[in-house]
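I am still learning, so can you show me any protein sequence you like together with the matching structure tokens, please?
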Amino acid sequence: MSLRSLALAAGIALAPLAAPTLVHAAPAAAALTQAQKSDIARIEQYLAGVKTLKSEFIQAGGDGSLVKGTIWLSRPNKMRLEYDPPIKDFIVADGWFVFYWDGELRQQSSAPIGSTMADIILRDTIRFGGDITVTGFERAANVIEISVVQTSEPGAGTLTLVFEDAPLRLRKWRVNDPQGLTTEVALLNPQVGGQLDRDLFIFREPADGQRRD
């Protein structure tokens, strides 16, 4: 599995690095009840409190693939995602750009954070409105799911955030990419808060092609 497909599947970078300019119809916003709007407000408040996060994850691809790794978030605009061996690829958001390292090809590519889906979860203030359109909302028992797209690029893909309620916490996300493939990423025992090493969020090309230890 290539780095690009891993990045796309994980919902970290849904927008192509060099995409042609396309005109998309305005996304259809979900018709939300007052209760659903209240839940969204609670989710926004919860996410505002998630300044740092570290978690192992399991990523299940639409092609049947299953990979594991670790993700670190430091809002605003910083992230690191590493896959467990033998995958040598990793992703770093340093505050301005998202860098993609292909361990097999030993090549780095990058894009401004604002041009990627990572912007939705890394921005300083997360609001589900304006440049983020809510296209779906579901509640079942103690689970809340909210689906969103980039208002200006709805064709880039749909990100569905899945929260466990009582207490409210992010448990997983699903990505529907432009090709119609669905991938799910489940967080395992996420740790919210605490200090993270700032070096995590500096892109450095591995001297031996391996990920950071």
Observations:
- The radius of gyration is 17 Å.
- The chain has three helices and eleven strands.
- The chain has one domain: 3-16+28-194.
